[in-house]
Design brief:
two-stranded antiparallel ribbon, alpha/beta, about 150 residues, 6 strands
């Protein structure tokens, strides 16, 4: 998600105190946005009716078609490999295109956004703008002050 412009936009909204949702479709041959719009509206109504922690925003991922329902999910872990393709434009000039290549996904006991989308659900992952690893602070403090 750190490379997603959609997530970055929602994060900026959350930082400004605006309830925010990022919505992304899995790549498919057809881009029917009607199901994504319906899912986003449903989640937005539910989110606005409740109380959310400050600077928390939601990341929705789904296929571009009918869905089975909604799942609260974790952010999937993956190893992403990008390929660079060397091409030539119509004027004979070389240019380079960044292509999607391999994604090595790691299962999360059925809780990840990737798994939910692959099973036909709308994935709803709560994200936060604070990337601090709060659990690591005591160990870091001990390391820095171990004199």
């Amino acid at each position: 998600v750190t490379y997603s412009g959609t997530v970055a936009g929602a994060m900026e909204g959350a930082l400004l105190g605006i309830p925010s949702i990022a919505v992304s479709l899995r790549r498919t041959p057809s881009f029917d946005f009607s199901f994504a719009a319906e899912a986003a509206a449903t989640v937005a109504r539910a989110a606005l009716a409740g109380q959310w922690p400050s600077r928390t925003f939601l990341n929705l991922n789904l296929n571009s078609g009918p869905y089975k329902g909604f799942r609260a999910t974790t952010q999937a872990r993956r190893n992403h490999v990008t390929q660079i393709a060397s091409r030539t434009d119509p004027r004979g000039q070389a240019y380079y295109w960044i292509e999607e290549a391999l994604d090595d996904w790691h299962a999360d006991d059925g809780r990840s956004d990737y798994e939910a989308v692959m099973e036909g659900y709308v994935s709803v992952t709560p994200l936060q703008a604070d990337l601090t690893d709060h659990k690591a602070l005591p160990a870091l403090d001990a390391l820095l002050n171990a004199r």
